[in-house]
Amino acid sequence: MGVDVVTTRPGDGVSFPKKGQTVVVHYTGTLTDGKKFDSSRDRGETFDFAIGMEEVIKGWDVGVAQMSIGQRATLTISSDMVGAAPRACLFDYFIYITYY
């Protein structure tokens, strides 16, 4: 249980966000059955949040903190890291850090 980060495109490998820094991401969230429930790309807007400040689900704070700038990854997040999840055990997020 927790967060599994699978890199689909490496980032710079040097610039990792620190607690309190703002990250700007594009994401697509799907349930375990592949059904998409949210996407910043569909809205044409990035999403930003401060790492480690509990502004997002714990799985994002933990997973995105492991990503370097420019990295694309799929985060598989267990239910204990998502809060009140509707009928799901795992969420898959495709996240791309654009800058912070």
Describe this structure in words.
The structure is a single chain. With 100 residues, this protein is mainly beta. The termini are far apart. It has helices spanning 40-43, 58-64; strands at 3-9, 22-31, 36-39, 47-50, 72-78, 90-99. It has one domain: Chitinase A, domain 3 (Roll). It is globular. The protein contains 2 helices and 6 strands, in the order βββαβαββ. Strands 1, 2, 3, 4, 5 and 6 form a 6-stranded antiparallel sheet that branches. One of its GO terms (cellular component) is cytoplasm. It holds the Pfam family FKBP_C. Its EC number is 5.2.1.8. It is an enzyme of class 5 (isomerase).
Percent helix: 10-25%
Q: N-to-C terminal Cα separation, in Å? A: 28 Å
Structural class: mainly beta
**Number of strand elements:** 6
Q: Which overall shape is indicated by the principal axes computed on the Cα atoms?
A: globular
CATH class bucket: Alpha Beta
Radius of gyration: 13 Å
Domain count: the total is: 1
Largest sheet: 6 strands, antiparallel
Number of separate helices: 2
β content, as a range?
A: 35-45%
**H/E topology pattern:** EEEHEHEE
Task: Provide tags for this entry.
100 residues; EC 5.2.1.8; mainly beta; globular; Chitinase A, domain 3; FKBP-type_PPIase; 6-stranded antiparallel sheet; 42% strand
